[in-house]
Amino acid sequence: MKIEEKLSSVISRHEEIEALLSEPTDGQTFSKLSKELGELSPIVEAGTQYKKALQDMSEAELLIKDSSTDEELKHFAEEEYYRLKHLIPEIEQKIKILLLPKDEADDKNAILEIRAGTGGEEAALFAADLFRMYEKYASLKGWKFEIEEINDTGIGGFKEAIATITGKEVFSRLKFESGVHRVQRVPETEASGRIHTSAATVAVLPEAEEVDIKIDEKDLRIDTYRSSGAGGQHVNKTDSAIRITHIPTGCVVACQEERSQFKNKDKAMKRLRSMLYEQQRQEKAKERSQNRKNQVGSGDRSERIRTYNFPQGRVSDHRINLTLYKLDAVLNGTALDEIIEPLIAEDQLSRLAEME
Q1: In what side-by-side order are the strands of the sheet with 241-246?
Q2: For the segment 300-340, what is each residue's pLDDT rounded down to a tens digit?
Q3: Maximum C-alpha span of the chain
Q4: Which among 7, 19, 160, 171 has the fewest CB atoms less than 10 Å away?
Q5: pLDDT digit string (tens) for 22-36?
């Protein structure tokens, strides 16, 4: 389908929704239609700009070809013609990106899971650095960052840390962070000044609602056990910790953060739904794109996606060959968008290539 045909279809639907919203309707329908209208409006605006640019270029071309046009006006028409000739492909590209099928998970909140990998205590310290980086980034975006569970080492490192991030377009911006993050630095305990390489895994899961994923109780094995770690005498008295195994997939989640067994189960079920939803989402993506070479944002944890090199003060994202000498700014969240934006752009270009 040509871009003009796609635009025509979107404009017709936009007009249809505007007409429907002008009539009495229930709250749920109104909310659904308003959301769709909001998604279509940027395409309609770009389409209007595109059509006007085409018309203006056509009029400029007529003036250039008209022998009765005076030289001053012809010169102005030529400048306008070549300006629009360069502008129109940019608008076309913008429209193509806006017309790309939307990832249904993009508007969802996210569950962030960070685990220390190879490297012992240094890996745990790095995992804590990453967790704080996303916490600061969430604050800059005006998102709510709620810590769900932290398994710390006692000297500043995190073996595992889990948080729920709530806000606008959370998952769409963080989904490419999944993977293995590597750090190269001299540990404070290293007397010889030798650089150590450690790693941590980051998983960003779209938070799934019950309507997204239906889980049959008979597919679950639920075990209770006594909490370990902080909690005083309580941990020795109550089997409040919960471990849930989803038998068909083998997915296992555990939660011991709350004193209440009920609350721990509720949190564990939330994580399980999100894990199963992400699995389902990835399977659909693979079906749509068997031949896709650039698996940006696949969440493959065996893939080293980024390196943080402290001696050189640089951060390198290996998927897009991007290097920034802004290590401190990335770790405090202020420069993280300088990595995220190119990742989003690369994903868009990759999906556009699939459609052509």
Answers
A1: 220-225, 241-246, 251-255
A2: 334 689 999 999 999 999 999 999 999 999 999 999 999 99
A3: 97
A4: 19
A5: 888 887 888 888 888
